[in-house]
Amino acid sequence: MKDEYFEANRKNWDERALIHSKSEFYYVQKFKKKKNSLPRLEQKELGDITGKKILHLQCHFGMDTLSLAYKGAIVTGVDFSGEAVKLARSLSKELRIPANFIESNIYSLQEKLTEQFDIVFTSYGVLCWLLDLEKWANLIYFYLKPGGFFYIIDGHPYGGLFDYKFKEGLRVGYTYFTGGQAERYEEEYSYASAIKITNCLNYQ
Predict the structure, then answer these.
(1) Which of 198, 149, 202 is nearest to 18 (CA)?
(2) Handedness of CA 93, 95, 100, 104 (dihedral sign)
(3) Distance between CA atoms of 61 and 79, rounded to whole angstroms?
(4) E strand or H helix at 40, and its extent?
(5) pLDDT tens digits for range 95-143
(6) Which burial class, exposed, middle or buried, applies to 36 when counting CB atoms under 10 A from its CB (0-12, 13-18, 19+)?
(7) Which of 23, 60, 148, 164 has its CB surrounded by the most CB atoms within 10 Å?
(8) Residue (of 117, 136, 25, 10) closest to 74 by Cα position
(9) How far apart are CA 162 and CA 159, in angstroms?
């Protein structure tokens, strides 16, 4: 069943990556001019990252990854969407910002990458897609150098439990404790665009 979850989500995110790269939400043209997509909070909390080795997990099509690299870090971005990784590599080449991008299921990453990093970084919208938080945490530990740190900024998963389509007001529509099973969703649109998604099935 987990293979089914993965394949449905991968197809969904392959399509989202192409849509997102053309959306006003991500505003790639503005990023190409500024070469920075990181909000002030992340920049402040990360501090001077010049020369630091950073592993960016679940990097989508690499705007934040390249922002970290532009600030002087040596960055590796990882995402399971082949289309996202292609877009990230294309942006890296176009903007002449060096970064390494790896296409991989996060839980299979050790088959492709074994080096350690000063910082493991991830942000916004990653937690709800993880089937095994403990395995994910162990992966982060594996990649951190002694004295390194893990940086995450995200909304709390509890926010995803509300049924926003409920007409009579806000209510909890989903369980927080799924017993290790993912919830099935079919969404016609991405959060970033009004363009319809063909591969609308996903599991969280």
Answers:
(1) 198
(2) negative
(3) 8
(4) helix 40-46
(5) 999 999 999 999 999 999 999 999 999 998 888 788 888 999 999 999 9
(6) middle
(7) 60
(8) 117
(9) 6
User: What is the per-residue pLDDT for 1?
Assistant: 44
pTM for this structure?
Answer: 0.83
Domain boundary assignment for the chain: 2-34+48-203
Closest CA to 117 of 134, 135, 100: 100
Tell me the C-alpha distance between 7 and 199, whole Å: 11
Q: Which CATH class is domain 2-34+48-203?
A: alpha beta
DSSP 148-163: EEEEEE---GGGGGB-
What is the 8-class DSSP label of residue 121? E
Burial of 171 (0-12, 13-18, 19+ CB in 10 A): exposed
